[in-house]
Write a structure and sequence with these properties.
By secondary structure, the chain is mostly helical. The protein has 47 helices and five strands. The longest helix has 18 residues.
């Protein structure tokens, strides 16, 4: 015990407070008490203050408590190598595992996180998005922590960690307190990048700040000097040692070693010599000391400084142009000079992984002392050496980033290979840096367009404006590759559309189509143009485009993916224009005759989404949900957990809303909004998420909460250029109506009319602006309100979906003369009771019951509204019911599945039996059938297919 404490005391001086915090955290982590759990610790301080030594002691104590220790260290030379830190942390825990075992351990995350962690090669297909990859890394680390608890994760020199790893860990860090995990980081505060600002305010034992390490006091430096040189060291000598090192522990230890090595007596008379000895440990003094070791040793030290951390001796020897014996000799001399650390394991539990400098300060000083031209040349040699050693293009790329352009085809090839590898691994920013450097090499004349295209693909998510420039520059290059040209044009249209520049996207495709000779390639470009035009809210030629689309789609057979995309767009266009629902479903059915992927590598997910949505508007929301569930699963398998998954959650929420399942809709909409916040506000995905959540909150009777949400997220004018469903401006007007701002709402709805009517979009199932406007003007202009409602009813009947007709009839009754209301509402209830629209049915029942003062109808309205989660409607209808002197119905849960009576009613209706057929006594078959339609998510026409899916 005495020897161990002496060893610690010599290396850990005046760190008792920090070690006490470490012990407290480890005790909590490993303790048997119920409150045992994880913690977060951050140590900060300038270079040399002992962060690395403190973390080494922390690891030793964690091992002594039987913790699994994950350790990593940022490197000044490795910052551009993506996932360098993540690999250090996780790879050793999975080393030696077979592919079969890895797939079993990582499950669906294998192909997402495996390439990033260097566990497997990237698979073909679209890469994961950065958020999906972070989610996968979260899962892997959480799984490891739970499986190998308790775990201590230690990251040293976090300021030099690669951005990909650092951003992930900074976001993951707050979870540590809820896991059997102690997460510890150390960094230099002045060098911590913005990616890791979260570490500055870790909510752990440091309160809301990191634990700063202070320089040593004069007494502590005196202890270090006397431990090394003997108790006879004089006070003046010790105080001068403190003064020349400024209390820096690393410099104090190195100074005492130098004093001992030179034989200088520690007396006051020799104190003036300490300044020169201290200078020899850093900067020019260190360089001069290195040069005295001989030219070959200098070259070897330079090579090590270029290679960074965990330096393979054989690769360093090749970079330094030394033989094996010369390299071994140079290594020995550098260790003797306390430039490289001594050989052997860092601890009994942590094996040596390569050569390391004694301290990063030494590595930095030596690296910066290399003459500029020679440093560039050494990076070039290092790149070739790591490729020849089989370490791959990514390991070489970080060195090539430091070289000067020399028109070298090998450099371009390696950088392109590294970029492709990183892009598929989920590190687009690293790929962008590598391709930008390759472009400066420059590439051969016939490679330039392809390289610009790859650069555009890499910067798509992070720098859309720059991506546009790269892709337009690629198109300006003279090259003869039709497939490449088509790919560039399609990607250019995609990035323009995602930047809310849909008109430019369409124009870029329109310019290319006449010059595309291949028929299939031309059709592909036409399908892309049709798609972006469909999403352009300001399209000026919509009716003509619809005619062209109908003419083209009606003669296609759906023989390939492009044809099916065109047919899918035809189904969506027919839905918007209010063509009969049978026509809409016919075209959607043609698309789905074969599997229709939502995650195709070179296609967007927009058309599969539109095909699913037409089922919802056509009163087949159950089928829409099936398609969304399959698409969401594809997104998750692919690692698309940013915008893609947000769209999926938000639109699934809208489908649930249309079914009247408002509680579930709100939960899904909030999940979609959380994902959309990751992408950014006022992006298309954000508009979708907010519009759907506001719509749902209004249906639940929480208008004030919806208004607060709109204000918080700046939901309002200007509205997006892209088509959003539900229509954002219409939702905003509905919100204004709920707040009683009738005239402002009417003005917004008039603007919706001016925007949609010229485009031929007249399906009230898609956008019920006429119905909201009828309500808004009813008091001041009742005749116009009736005309608007009547026109909406006409359009809804033309479309033919019972839910759309029922909704229109209910609003028509609201603005109609009193004598006409009952008939309109009765028809609405009849239609809606045979539809999947539970919330609309509840509203129609409440309106009819109120109009007729019918307690039975009001009771049915309360029960239906409760099932929907329409709390506001429940409260209003209950008040009306109690006002009639009737009792409020008891709350009762309804089974999710079909009851026997509901299943029988559905089967009879699907078989074509009419209402005159005998029915079981004591039951009302209409209400059983109504419940079946809502639970199955279909109207009467869709019952056969819905029952088949239900049985399966």
């Amino acid at each position: 015990m005495t020897d161990r404490r002496t060893r610690i005391r010599r290396t850990m001086v005046e760190r008792e407070a920090e070690l006490a915090i470490v012990d407290e955290a480890l005790d909590q982590l490993t303790g048997p008490t119920p409150d045992a759990g994880g913690a977060l610790l951050a140590f900060s301080g300038p270079a040399g203050l002992g962060k690395t030594t403190l973390l080494a002691e922390l690891r030793r104590r964690a091992h002594a408590r039987s913790c699994t220790v994950l350790t990593a260290r940022g490197g000044e030379q490795e910052q551009t190598q993506p996932f360098h830190v993540a690999r250090q942390l996780i790879q050793p825990q999975l080393a030696g595992t077979s592919e079969h075992e890895l797939r079993a351990a990582l499950g669906s995350w294998y192909s997402i996180v495996g390439p990033a962690l260097g566990l497997c090669a990237p698979e073909q297909g679209a890469p994961p998005d950065p958020q999906g990859l972070r989610d996968g890394l979260d899962w892997v680390l959480t799984h490891l922590v739970v499986k190998r608890a308790p775990v201590t994760l230690v990251l040293d020199d976090a300021h030099w960690a690669d951005p990909e790893s650092l951003g992930w860990l900074a976001a993951f860090a707050p979870r540590a307190e809820h896991l059997p995990l102690l997460l510890v980081v150390a960094y230099r505060p002045d060098e911590l990048p913005a990616d890791a600002d979260a570490f500055r305010t870790l909510p752990g034992r440091a309160g809301q700040r990191p634990l700063p390490l202070a320089p040593l006091t004069p007494a502590a430096v005196a202890d270090l000097v006397r431990d090394a040189l003997g108790d006879h060291a004089e006070d003046d000598f010790c105080r001068e040692a403190w003064a020349v090192t400024a209390g820096n522990p690393f410099e104090a230890v190195e100074l005492t070693a130098k004093v001992r090595g030179t034989g200088l007596r520690p007396v006051a008379a020799n104190a003036p010599q300490l300044a020169d000895l201290a200078a020899a440990q850093r900067g020019s003094g260190l360089v001069a000391r290195l040069e005295r070791l001989g030219p070959s040793t200098v070259r070897f030290a330079w090579a090590c400084a270029v290679l960074g951390t965990a330096i393979p001796q054989d690769i360093a020897a090749r970079v330094a142009a030394l033989g094996i014996e010369e390299a071994a000799s140079a290594t020995w001399r550098l260790r003797e000079a306390r430039i490289l650390s001594a050989g052997g394991a860092a601890s009994e539990q942590e094996p040596e992984t390569g050569l390391e400098f004694v301290h990063p300060l030494i590595a930095t000083a030596i690296y910066r002392a290399i003459p500029d031209a020679l440093r560039v040349a050494l990076h070039g040699k290092a790149a070739a050496a790591v490729v020849d050693a089989g370490l791959g293009p990514s390991a070489a790329a970080r060195h090539l980033l430091e070289t000067h352009p020399e028109n070298d085809p090998w450099v371009v090839r390696v950088l392109r290979e590294a970029a492709a590898e990183n892009l598929r691994a989920g590190a687009p920013e690293a790929a962008r840096r590598q391709l930008a450097r390759a472009l400066r090499e420059p590439p051969d004349f016939d490679e330039r367009a392809a390289l610009l295209y790859e650069l555009g693909c890499a910067s798509l998510l992070t720098e859309p404006a720059t991506t546009v420039n790269h892709l337009r520059a690629a198109l300006a290059e003279p090259f003869d590759d039709p497939a490449l040209r088509q790919g560039i044009v399609i990607r250019l249209a995609q990035v323009l559309s995602h930047s809310d520049r849909l008109a430019e996207a369409s124009e870029s495709l329109a310019r290319e189509i006449p010059h595309t000779a291949d028929v299939r390639a031309r059709l592909r470009l036409q399908s892309e143009q049709f798609m972006w035009d469909a999403f352009n809210a300001a399209e000026t030629d919509s009716p003509a485009r619809s005619r062209r689309l109908a003419k083209l789609a009606d003669r296609l057979t759906g023989r390939d993916l492009t044809e099916r995309y065109v047919i899918g767009l035809r189904a969506w266009d027919a839905c918007l224009r209010g063509e009969p629902v049978d026509v809409v479903l016919h075209h959607a059915g043609r698309v789905l005759e074969q599997p229709f992927s939502w995650a195709h590598e070179d296609r967007g997910f927009e058309v599969p989404v539109l095909v699913a949505m037409v089922h919802m508007y056509a009163d087949r929301p159950g089928r829409a949900e099936e398609l969304f569930e399959a698409g969401t699963a594809e997104f998750e398998r692919q690692g698309w957990r940013g915008a893609h998954l947000s769209f999926a959650y938000s639109l699934r929420a809208y489908v649930r809303f249309r079914r009247g399942r408002l509680t579930e809709a709100e939960d899904l909409a909030r999940s979609g909004l959380r994902l959309a916040e990751r992408v950014g506000r006022r992006t298309p995905v954000h508009w979708y998420a907010i519009a759907i959540l506001i719509t749902t909150l209004l249906a639940r009777g929480r208008a004030d909460e919806a208004w607060d949400l709109a204000r918080e997220h700046e939901f309002g004018s200007p509205f997006p250029a892209a088509v959003v469903f539900p229509d954002s401006q219409t939702v905003y007007a509905e919100l204004l109506l709920a707040r009683g701002e009738v005239r402002v709402a009417a003005a917004e709805l008039e603007a919706v009319d001016r925007r949609l009517t010229p485009r031929g979009i007249q399906n009230p199932a898609w956008c019920p602006w006429q119905l909201h406007l009828a309500r808004a003007v009813a008091e001041e202009d009742p005749a116009r309100a009736r005309d608007l409602a009547a026109d909406a009813v006409r359009r809804a009947r033309a479309f033919g979906a019972p839910s759309a007709i029922g909704q229109a009839l209910r609003v028509a009754a609201q603005v109609a003369p009193e004598a006409e209301r009952p008939a309109l509402l009765r028809e609405a209830v009849t239609l809606l009771s045979a539809s999947p629209a539970g919330y609309e049915l509840a509203q129609a029942l409440a309106a009819l019951g109120t109009e007729l003062r019918d307690a039975d109808l009001l009771t049915a309205a309360v029960v239906t509204a409760r099932e929907c989660g329409a709390d506001g409607l429940v409260a209003r209808t209950t008040d009306t019911l109690l006002g009639l002197g009737a009792a409020c119905p008891r709350e009762a849960s309804s089974p999710d599945g079909l009851t026997e009576e509901e299943l029988l009613a559905a089967r009879r209706a699907a078989a074509g039996h009419g209402p005159d057929d005998p029915v079981p006594p004591g039951r009302d078959p209409d209400w059983d059938l109504s419940a079946a339609c809502r639970k199955l998510g279909t109207n009467l026409q869709g019952l056969p297919a819905a029952l088949e899916a239900y049985a399966g």
